[in-house]
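Good morning N.,

You mentioned wanting to compare the apo and holo forms, so I went ahead and generated the holo version with 2'-O-acetyl adenosine-5-diphosphoribose. This is what I fed in:
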Amino acid sequence: MNESTPIPESLVEALRGAQTVTMLTGSGVSAESGVPTFRDAQTGLWARYDPADLATPEAYSRDPRLVWEWYEWRRGLVAQAGPNPGHLALAQLERHVSRFTLITQNVDGLHRRAGSGNLIELHGNIMRTKCSAEGVAVEDYEPEGAPPVCPNCGAPLRPDVVWFGEALPADALHAASEAARSCDLFFSVGTSGLVQPAALLPFEAQRSGATVVVEVNPDKTPLSRHADYVLRGRAGKVLPALLEATYGS
Ligand code: OAD
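and this is what came out, ligand included:
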């Protein structure tokens, strides 16, 4: 295992030779865009709330206004933010690899804005809204109310994200699992690896055979001791360095 940020030559060669690369990202990738990581998001006005109390169907049934307003605050942060060098490096990497899949737990849409194409948003997207009764995405609605109501059925609207205790979209999870099991190289970037089922993906990749697992994170996680390479550092620094070392751009 190599724990230094300079990119090991053996990893550069593995990436150059890889046909299929799968990457999993978490909120650490967006930290350098000014979007707090999920477990750091409780700042200011929201400091007294636990995310587990806000990002659940129970919280929404109990106090829909509170949950809607918390998401409005988070949407405001995301709207002001832009992709950082880490997001941009991932979009560039995709252009160099034959089969590249980016799986993200982030709901901020910054990977798409950075230009990533083959993207699986496992936990949904905070900028989309859906009907809490019908489950379908709703684009045009009167913004009055917290939450506003569905123009079709009058039920309250909610963000189109996966809350604690909810199932992930089956198609997205299936595609993510497939991408993990079929890759030569798997990267886990900026995620604490504490939330299932996403946290299992690097292990699925590892079990599938000759896959090399790489972690990019300034801090230790439960994956660290199982990874073949650990690149300690910020995604916004390590990923551009990886791109430069491998492809020279
Ligand atoms: P966490 O907040 O649990 O973890 C963020 C990780 O990013 C930590 O391991 C940090 O060390 C790391 N980190 C911080 N800054 C970084 C940087 N600049 N570069 C790289 N890494 C950095 O967030 P997630 O792992 O994304 O799910 O959390 C996973 C899921 O938990 C979220 O999608 C959310 C939450 O429950 C749902 O809402 C369903």
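The mean pLDDT is 92.

Happy to go through it together on a call whenever suits you.

Best,
F.
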